[in-house]
Amino acid sequence: MAVAFGHASDAQQGPSITSKSWAHDCTGDNYLVVIITHRNNPGAITCTYNGVAMTLLASESASFNWESMFGLASPASGSNNIAASWASATNVGAVGMSFSGVTSIGTAIKASVAGSTSNFSTTSETLTANDMLVGGAGVPDSGTPLTVVAGTQRAENGAITDATTNGATNTGTGGVVITWNYNSAGDPKTWIAVKLVGAGAYSTTLSESKTVTDDLLAAPARTLSESKTATDDLLAAPARVLSESKTATDTFASAFLRLATFSELVVALDTLIRSGVRVISNSVTATATFVQESVRSLVEAITATDLFVTALAFGRVLTESVSANDTIKKLLNGSSTIWTDLTKTVSSWINREKL
Questions:
Q1: pLDDT for res 244
Q2: Pick from 102, 109, 164, 352: most CB atoms within 10 A?
Q3: C-alpha distances in angstroms, 2 versus 101, 131, 132, 167, 201?
Q4: pTM (2 d.p.)
Q5: Distance CA 246, CA 81 (A)
């Protein structure tokens, strides 16, 4: 939200007074600025609105020209009196200006101006689109000696003898000034100005910062909660194991405690021994069966080997039989070579027998 001008007022009063009061309407406005110009030194000065003390933002003087600016945040709504008082009687001229949309103010700037200068300006203030520069020029003169060259005139106290205040504003982005023109260049002049800061980027940033901060603060709490849950689960696990172990132990102990007599204990031990013997017996039987099966397999393997060897021998005999049979067939077929060989062989047997 940008700063907006609301209402203006001015005080016209004759010379040589020590206080001045006038009405100002602050309906809808949230910041009030009052600028007072004195001819000669007024001494200590105070200002209130609806009885509430305003803050002195700055004072400036040049020779016999004295100027003061006051500010008040959240002034009472409606039309109420601005009341100023000071120590020494002087001529005075004053204006009031109120604004809406002000979130804060800058540091007041001020200066006095040499008497020979007709146009004079505030120093540059850096504004955003939502800000406004408000200022007042004071001169020790009457009538309407001041006009605004850069900015917008909001109030001037008018035909007051020897003390005039002109209130003005200006807006823009970057460096902004307010410039006045004084038609009597020979007199001393003063000006005071202050930046009124509007909402916008500042509020948005604060709002976003709050959201991020809230999220950041919530995260550790959530993490701590999750950590507590995990820790509880971790602690519960050993307890559960111990509980189950205790139950098993109790059951075991209960079983023995139920053996009310020595004879029952003997029976239980006998049952245990018999169970062990039965297990051993079964084991021996299984081992014997395994050995018998192994021997039978070995015997069968030997038998198979014998049969294999026999088969090989039979095959040789068969081969030799086939060879002999082929020889006989050759003899029957009249092979001369075979008969010759046979005759020689038979002759050799006969001759060997004779000897």
A1: 55
A2: 164
A3: 6, 6, 8, 20, 11
A4: 0.58
A5: 87
**22: which strand partners?**
82
Q: Which residues pair with 150 in a beta bridge?
A: 179
d(C-alpha 156, C-alpha 142), whole Å: 11
Query: Above 90 in pLDDT, residue 229?
Result: no
Cα distances (Å, whole numbers) of residue 324 to 126, 344, 345: 135, 18, 16
pLDDT band at 148 (very low <50, low <70, confident <90, very high): very high
What are the backbone dihedrals phi and psi of residue 237, each rounded to the nearest 5 degrees, phi first? -60, -50
Compute φ and ψ for 326, nearest 5 degrees: -60, -40
**Which amino acid belongs to residue 347?**
S
**CA 337 from centroid of its chain's CA atoms:** 117
Find where tokens 């930046």 sit.
Answer: 195
What is the domain partition of the chain in residue ranges? Answer: 4-198, 200-258, 262-350
Q: Of 17-21, 59-63, 233-237, where does mean pLDDT reach its minimum?
A: 233-237
What is the DSSP pairing of strand 119-121 with strand 179-182? antiparallel
